[in-house]
């Protein structure tokens, strides 16, 4: 008997149209486990194309997560088609590799608006729906950079924004737990995505990964599995946590 951990769930995933990204890998895994997936990304055409690649049951919606009205409109479009939302995966993000003294006001605004503000605005659009339905799940994608102040990919402002995502996830878990809404975070380490390919060649990442306990670079599917677990009934008593997925590159005391 095939196990489907997200059967008939409606799952909204932001920043999920990149072919080699965490978001699309997560969308694929949820679809394989029976979910109806809504892919949100800046470009409506790219989001729709990615959704078509998953099958007819899925949809793509253009959405700028830094715009509250756009978030509300995207959620309304999903509700119009499916009538409900069960899971939100806050994955949209971007980064810049800059030192502390090199980060400008514009840099800070750009990165924190997408990573942290976008997580808040999309969560605000979905939380009332989950509350009315009697429960649901939010998974926020953070970063190992948030835990150790860098060392993966991204400047100080990226580290700060991703650390903010962890604090926001905990606050939402605490506030909405009584509504049967679980909120958790995933902190990926070095993952071989288009996102990280812009920093160093793949060969350099594989070489670095030889020092990790698991001796390999992470793949988008590794993060997708963590997101599926946290959103499934397997994690029914889990909320407010940060799940480290880094191959042992960073082991907390």
Description of the molecule:
With 253 residues, this protein is an alpha/beta fold. The protein has one domain (10-244): Rossmann fold, CATH 3.40.50.720. The protein contains 9 helices and 7 strands; from the N terminus they run βαβαβαβαβααβαααβ. It has helices spanning 22-32, 44-52, 68-82, 105-133, 144-148, 156-176, 194-197, 202-209, 220-231; strands spanning 10-14, 36-41, 59-62, 87-90, 136-141, 181-188, 242-245. Strands 3-2-1-4-5-6-7 form a 7-stranded parallel β-sheet, sandwiched between helices. It is globular. The N and C termini lie far apart (39 Å). 49% of the residues are buried.
Instruction: State the CATH superfamily name.
Output: NAD(P)-binding Rossmann-like Domain
- Helix/strand structural class: alpha/beta
Taken in chain order, the helices and strands follow as: EHEHEHEHEHHEHHHE
Helical coverage, percent range: 40-55%
The spatial strand order of the largest sheet comes to 3-2-1-4-5-6-7
CATH topology: Rossmann fold
Low-confidence stretches: none
Summarize the structure.
45% of the residues lie in helices and 15% in strands.
Task: Kindly list the characteristics that best describe this protein.
single chain, about 250 residues, alpha/beta, Rossmann fold
């Amino acid at each position: 008997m095939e196990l489907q951990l997200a059967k008939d769930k409606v799952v909204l995933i932001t920043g999920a149209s990149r072919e080699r990204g965490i978001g699309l890998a997560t969308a694929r895994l949820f679809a394989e486990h029976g979910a109806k997936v809504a892919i949100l990304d800046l470009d409506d055409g790219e989001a729709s194309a990615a959704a078509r690649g998953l099958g007819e049951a899925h949809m793509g919606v253009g959405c700028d997560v830094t715009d509250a009205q756009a978030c509300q409109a995207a959620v309304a479009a999903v509700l119009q088609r499916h009538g409900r939302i069960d899971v939100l995966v806050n994955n949209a993000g971007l980064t810049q590799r800059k030192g502390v003294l090199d980060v400008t006001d514009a840099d800070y605004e750009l990165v924190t608006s997408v990573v942290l503000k976008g997580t808040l605005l999309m969560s605000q659009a979905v939380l009332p729906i989950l509350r009315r339905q009697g429960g649901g799940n939010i998974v926020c994608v953070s970063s190992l950079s948030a835990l150790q102040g860098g060392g993966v990919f991204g400047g100080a402002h990226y580290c700060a924004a991703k650390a903010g995502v962890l604090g926001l996830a905990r606050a939402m878990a605490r506030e909405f737990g009584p509504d049967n809404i679980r909120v958790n975070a995933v902190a990926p380490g070095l993952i071989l995505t288009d996102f990280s390919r812009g920093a160093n060649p793949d060969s350099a990442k594989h070489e670095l990964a030889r020092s990790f306990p698991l001796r390999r670079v992470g793949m988008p599917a590794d993060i997708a599995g963590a997101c599926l677990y946290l959103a499934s009934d397997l994690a029914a008593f889990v909320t407010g946590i940060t799940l480290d997925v880094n191959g042992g590159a960073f082991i907390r005391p």
